[in-house]
Design a protein that fits this description.
With about 300 residues, this protein is an alpha/beta fold. The chain is built from ten helices and eleven strands. It has a six-stranded parallel β-sheet.
């Protein structure tokens, strides 16, 4: 048996067509969705991520407002910038790229973002809404995971899902999404992590494994139930002397071995990654609709 590949690029492309159509409908009503990205410092990874977000906005007809500042920007100045963006009617979504320089309190900054413009879904108000099943915005990577399952023909309803990882960005929110009462959820969910006892045995129970622990090839093929569906959120750089750049990206699952056990699996790269920015565009469109009382 060789697992089917769940193509995140293809699924993301389909969703982006839907977003572009939604943006066009709003634009015809005189409303252009706008996303503000705030980047502090010169971290190469952050610059790359923000660049991809700006590119996606341009491709979909969303206005992009890029705020890029030096690493010595004060916390007070950043909070003042966020306050200005909160009040700007052309800005419907605000994304502050993390990590921030050490002298800035990240939680204070995230709390300062208007929850109605918090398209990352990290504000406690939005986290609480997700918890009770009334989300304003769904965090982008967890939302992308549910779309991957749903659109690849692997719905989680009634199935046992093990989420390996308990971060506030992926593990916890995707577990909350999966237990909700709706057509894309209705799963039985276990959240496990590096401190879980008998972790391989717990993973073996799963019909669907979501690996988000941040450790290369951490989950082995013999941990998987035959026929399990595997969503690999990991993005880890490992040395590879056969590549010109000297490294390559791998996931949190031993991919090559898992191909012989799983029924379907996301590749790294090309699986979950393309979905994250796409769902950010979905949230920005939704923010514009909500702020203007449309749909």
């Amino acid at each position: 048996m060789s697992a089917a590949l769940i193509d995140g690029k293809q699924i993301a492309a389909t969703i982006r067509v839907e977003v572009a159509n939604g943006v066009r409908e709003l634009t015809e009503q005189g409303i252009t969705p706008g996303l503000a990205t705030v980047l502090i410092g010169d971290d190469p990874g952050s610059h790359s991520y923000v660049g991809m977000k700006k590119k996606a906005c341009g491709e979909l007809g969303i206005n992009s407002f890029a705020e890029e500042h030096s690493a010595d920007m004060s916390e007070e100045e950043l909070l003042s910038l966020v306050d200005r963006l909160n009040g700007d009617p052309a800005v419907h979504g605000i994304l502050v790229q993390l990590p921030l320089p050490g002298h800035i309190d990240e939680q204070k900054v995230l709390l300062a973002i208007d929850p109605a413009k918090d398209v990352d879904g990290f504000h406690p108000d939005n986290v609480g809404r997700l918890m009770v099943g009334q989300p304003r915005f769904t965090p982008c990577t967890p939302a992308g995971i549910l779309e991957l399952l749903h659109r690849s023909g692997n719905p989680p309803g009634g199935r046992e899902v093990v989420v390996v990882g308990r971060s506030n960005i992926v593990g916890k929110p995707v577990a909350m999404l999966l237990v909700q009462k709706n057509d894309k959820a209705n799963a039985t969910v276990t959240v496990a992590h590096s401190r879980t006892q008998d972790l391989p045995d717990i993973v073996r129970r799963a019909d669907i494994v979501i690996a988000a622990i941040g450790s290369p090839r951490f989950i082995k093929a013999d941990w998987l139930k035959p026929g399990a569906v595997v969503i690999d959120v990991g993005s880890n750089r490992v040395e590879d002397s056969t590549r010109e750049r000297g490294w390559r990206m791998v996931g949190d699952v031993d991919f090559e071995a898992a191909l012989e056990v799983a029924s379907a699996i996301t590749p790294v790269p090309g699986g979950v990654g393309p979905m994250t920015i796409t769902m950010l565009m979905v949230n920005t469109l939704q923010a514009a609709r909500t702020i203007h009382g449309i749909g």
